[in-house]
Amino acid sequence: MLTPAVYAGSFDPVTNGHMDIIRRARDVFGAVIVLVMPNACKRPLFTAQERVELLRQALQGEENVRVEATEGLLTDYLKKNGLKVLVRGLRGEGDLEHELVNAFYNKQFYASAETVFLPGRPEYAFLSSSAVREAFSYGADVSALVPPGVAEALQRKKRF
Ligand code: ADP
C-alpha cells in the first residue's frame, strides 16, 4: 500500500512550477496529496475552495494525485491521516532558509514528519504565485506561467 507524500502550499494560484513539483513528487513517492493551506501572511486572490477547484481541474487525469484542503496545523493533518512525508520545492537559496525553518517546526510538532526537497527546474526558478498575482494585477498576460484553467479564472476575476 502506497503512503502518499504531502505537498502543501497556498497555491494562490497554482503555477507551472507547482505542477512540475507535483508530478515529480508523485513519480518519486508513488502518490501525492496536494494540500491547500491558508496563508495568514498573504491576502488571497482565490478562496481556498477556488484554489482546490483550480488544482483539481489542472490535475484532471493525473494518476495518484489527490487535492485536499485543511485550515489547521499541517502536522495535525499528517497525524490524523497517518502521513509523514512532506515534499517541498526549492527554487534557490532564497527558499532554502525558509524551508529549513518550516522543516524544523514540522519535526518539532510531529517527530515522525520528514521533509524532502525537490529542486525546482531552472525555467521555473523565478516563478511564484505572488509574482503571477502582481504581474496580473498590472495587466500582464501570465498564461504561459500557469495551467490553462488558471489563466481563464484570472480573466474571469478581471471582469468583476
Ligand atoms: P508560492 O511560493 O509560489 O506562493 P506556495 O506558498 O504555494 O507557493 O509554495 C508551496 C511550495 O511550492 C513551496 O515549497 C515552494 O518553494 C514551492 N514552489 C513554489 N513555486 C515553485 C517553483 N516555481 N518551482 C519549484 N518549487 C516551487
From TrEMBL:
Cofactors required: Mg(2+)
Species in which this protein is naturally found: Candidatus Avelusimicrobium gallicola
Protein name: Phosphopantetheine adenylyltransferase
Keywords tagged on the record: ATP-binding, Coenzyme A biosynthesis, Cytoplasm, Magnesium, Nucleotide-binding, Nucleotidyltransferase, Transferase
Catalytic activity: (R)-4'-phosphopantetheine + ATP + H(+) = 3'-dephospho-CoA + diphosphate
PANTHER family: PHOSPHOPANTETHEINE ADENYLYLTRANSFERASE
Cell compartment(s), UniProt: Cytoplasm
EC number: 2.7.7.3
